[in-house]
Amino acid sequence: MHKKKSMKILSIQGSPRPNGNSAAIAKRFCDTAKNHGADIECFILNAMHYKGCQGCMACKTKQECCVIKDDVTAVLQQVQTADVLVLSSPVYWGDLSSQMKGFIDRMYSFLKPDYMTAQCKSRLKTGKKLVLVLCQEDPPEEHADIFPRYAFFFDWLGFSESHLIRACSVHSIGAVHKRRDILAEAEHTAAGLFKNGRIRK
Q1: Is residue 109 part of a domain?
Q2: Is residue 25 part of a domain?
């Protein structure tokens, strides 16, 4: 009898505050998925030592992976085997945190050398799912372009679905715990990855 494959969820926190609002939403999402049987792996970027993409183009000429060896190397390896990638970040200056942006830039190594013209642009296995968690102090109509912009490029990487969980008008640490609507959305999004107790394809 074959053992049912567990969903692997990789949660990457881009906030400099380990107990901040975006981290709390990501935790609620992951806790819900874990209750459904998912395996969770979590990394806090602010506690790691790494560089952003150096533009050396070695991943397009000499190797099929990023040649930089630092703390993010192991995280990029985890991305390859993950079913779901959860990226959580506060919104700074209308974009993701520098910690998260630097990590995403390193994911450039997953694109094939001919990605600009190739129908299949990514070295990653297709069918992965992205969950982007954003927290911002501004109202909803501000910075509304962040999710569509990154979802577009993750489509290049072969992610078949992209989901947004966004908390607006939150700033102080712990403020999101008073937002039952946002926490319920995190739970609903996580539960939606499963169907009859199995991974939804």
Answers
A1: yes
A2: yes
| DSSP-assigned letters across all residues of 161-187 | EEEEEEEES--STTGGGG-HHHHHHHH
Beta-ladder partners of 164: 132
Residues whose CB falls within 8 Å of the CB of residue 96, separated by 6 or more in sequence, listed in order: 14, 87, 89, 104, 134, 146, 150
| Domain assignment present for 3 | no
User: Are residues 86 and 128 in contact, defined by beta-carbon separation less than 8 angstroms?
Assistant: no
Q: How far apart are CA 162 and CA 131, in angstroms?
A: 6
Question: Splitting the chain (201 residues) into consecutive groups of 10 residues, what average pLDDT does each group show?
Answer: 76 95 97 95 98 97 96 98 97 97 98 96 96 94 93 97 96 90 97 71 60
Residue 193: CB partners within 8 Å, gap ≥ 6? 7, 33, 36, 38, 84, 129, 199, 200
b/e per residue, 50-80, with b = 16+ CB within 10 A?
Answer: bebbeeeeebeeeeeebebeeebeebbeebe
Residue with tokens 């990154």: 150
Number of domains forming the structure of the chain: 1
**Does residue 2 belong to any structural domain of this protein?**
no
Q: Are 184 and 30 in contact (CB under 8 A)?
A: no
The beta strand positions in 91-201, using DSSP E, are 128-136, 159-168, 194-195, 198-199
Range of the domain at 35: 8-199
